[in-house]
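Aim 2 progress update. The chain analyzed this quarter is reproduced below.
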Amino acid sequence: MRRKGSRRFEDDEPKAVKEMKKNKKIEENSKRRKSTKKEKKKKRKKIILSVIIVFILILGITLGVSGHTWITLAKDMVSNESSIVIDIEGNTIAKLRR
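Predicted structure tokens:
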């Protein structure tokens, strides 16, 4: 039994030891928080970089396809073939640009 106001020295730790343990816990918690913040920043950077790379790939593919289509269309427009006018029955009416 404990009497009011008395201390048992076997059970109690000195204040300095308690403070050291408290400070150590605080430092460990702050290190954990810092490491999780760093990990979150790294994850964010990776995600942003991935999104940018995907965007660039899609843009490149789109520009490549449209460029190829434009070149094909331009070649067809510049060709020096004569145009043929045909009626509904398939008879040739006239040849243009010859």
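The first strand starts at residue 83 and ends at 86. The first helix runs from residue 15 to 78. These observations will guide the mutagenesis experiments scheduled for the next reporting period.
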